[in-house]
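seq as requested:
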Amino acid sequence: MINFKITGTKTVFEGRVFDVRVDNIKYNSGNNGIREVVIHNGGAVVVPVNSDGKIVMVTQYRYPFGKKFLELPAGKLEKDEDPFVCAERELTEETGYISKNLTKLGQIATSPGFCTELLHIYLARNLSSGKLNREEGEYGMEVFEFSLQEVEGKIRNGEIIDSKTICGIFYYRSLLQTGK
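struct tokens:
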């Protein structure tokens, strides 16, 4: 049950990756409040699995943390872009692979307390070589291949802390266990 109404809204920041909106709200009790919302187009994440059953991952420098993260390939949706198209693009851009068998596993809300970002997670099988097409900020990426057990070990030991990667691996593991 929603116990408030929005009494005013203002976009206070318009950026390249996200915007920030501030909403003034009034609770049913009469008290006022403020909600700050990050508006994000969302993105696509790919769990690429090669013919040997190895998961293809990349390292990417993450500016806010000042270090490289081991992650699944992923990228931001352009305005009104189909997540499937984004997943295909990011797979090739970041790993150099293409897939003729891309299926959606699910989606996640990354930070629903303050952000509208939804990430669409896809499984890519039947990989074949494509052409890397990295953006300037991705030039230092490295590509690695690990078994599912190795990836799960890296999650358990804290080497992989990226949430979209952990969720993508969960979806993939669930698919293997249930066949759905």
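The chain has a mean pLDDT of 95.
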